[in-house]
Design goal:
Length: 77
Amino acid sequence: MVQAYILIQTEVGKAASVASAISGISGVTQAEDVTGPYDVIVRAEARNVDELGKLVVAQIQGVEGITRTLTCPIVHI
């Protein structure tokens, strides 16, 4: 199982609607709108890195109002 945080920038005023839309996507375990350089932080999980990439590109980035994403896989050192 691969887990990651996905940091999202949105259009002005769209953070709450983006977080709400993303929270309904399968594989997303948490989506919160926040303040700072990013507008939404998502925690997601997938079976492997390829599935995580598909989740981000095919589903999360397709949500209206998103301008940029940064995917940060979780590692256990």
